[in-house]
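Why show two proteins at once? Because comparison is the fastest way to build intuition. When a single record is shown, students tend to memorize it. When two are placed side by side, the eye starts asking what differs. So, the first record is below.
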Amino acid sequence: MGTQAERRFSTRKRLLDAASACLVESGYAALTTTAVAQRAGLSQGALFRYFPAKPDLLAATVEHLFATLTARYETRFAKVAAAGVVTAPAALGLLAEVLDDPRYLAALELHTAARTDERLRASLDAVVHQHSANLRRLAHALPLDLGTGDRELLDDLIDLATLALQGAAVHRMAVHETEAPRRVITALTRLAGLGRAAQRDGITAKDSRPRPKIQPRRARR
């Protein structure tokens, strides 16, 4: 039967699983407390005992959704890491694969909705930043074929790849264009190669900035 705390945990998870499923299948606009309660097989009264208002349910759903995604990412990244050295294109392909999860696409819909929903934006803020940190942590754990001096380049590549692939996912949802992620991976791989070449030649971002011209001193009279 379980303790009361265990039953509460189980019921709460049941509601959050139902809310996540509603979000993935029907979208943010159709995510209602009625639909979530029905999917969970509970009354709305039971739902409101755990989440007094819809924004509370949304905030918890966001956190639950990203926690589920992170668990899946950890499993997938660990499997790839166990196979041996990972090339930059393979790492980018892995990132594109995990960001193609329907649950992640549903999370992107929440990003868009947060533009005009201040409470939702506040709920997303900390969770999204933590999710980005998790992706960076997992990427650093991969046996990548980058040199030890390429740590800063790797961080830049992770950030750029995540943002670019997010944009590609939104673009694909809007116009059903499936080639955008592949183009992003191709472009990022090329850029990563340029970055490594620059580092091999001893060129840094600081070195590449235009330097002020030094005016010759006038002879004293």
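Second record. Ask yourself what differs from the first in the token line.
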Amino acid sequence: MPSSKIQKNVITVRGRERSLTIKQKNLFSNLDKYKLDFSLLKKDKKYKGSKLFFEIGFGSGDIIYRQAKLNPNDLFIGVEYYRKGITQLIEKIENNNIENIKILHGDARKILMNIPDGIFEEIWLFFPDPWPKNRHEKRRFIQLDMIDTLASKIKKDGKLLISSDDKNYIGWTLSLLLMKNCFNWLALGPSDWRLPNNDYFGSRYEKKGIKSDREPYFLKFQKI
């Protein structure tokens, strides 16, 4: 049974990071241009009236980039631990003059603690590391304490969207969320967890999994 207490210094990412190429280092050096000071968010007239969306672990940034391009009046904020993924998103932004994406670098667990409550329309957790071995369950991002944290950052009636192609992880996630009284599970039948939102764009990882016969599952929750 997962602990309901916050576990400090828990590793939720795996593997050593590869060295960046010169091009990637140059792109990463531009990260400061995409940082966001949440304390100044309400004072910034540029984002007045904007809906805020937050993606945890955006990988190469495929999904957040496409959503930002389709919805220029909304603000999309992504957090990623690996620098390579950040450089891939920055390259997309700069090649296409996207102005409504902000990027946070680091451990999402720690970053969430410093974000104001009740500001996001949606939080996305697409294809996180499932940490499949039993002894590594404590490293999974979704834990009882994290559900409380995620709920606190989402507006009333806002959504939490989670996907994975690992059945065990989906079962784990669903069981924990149903234990809490923070969200309603928006599912009426099997198709509801086999199909994503209508405006969803798949990632490279997802497409790679489908080619390997790994079926994706999509969990949609609404904050109570």
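One difference worth noting in the second protein: The longest strand covers residues 154-164.
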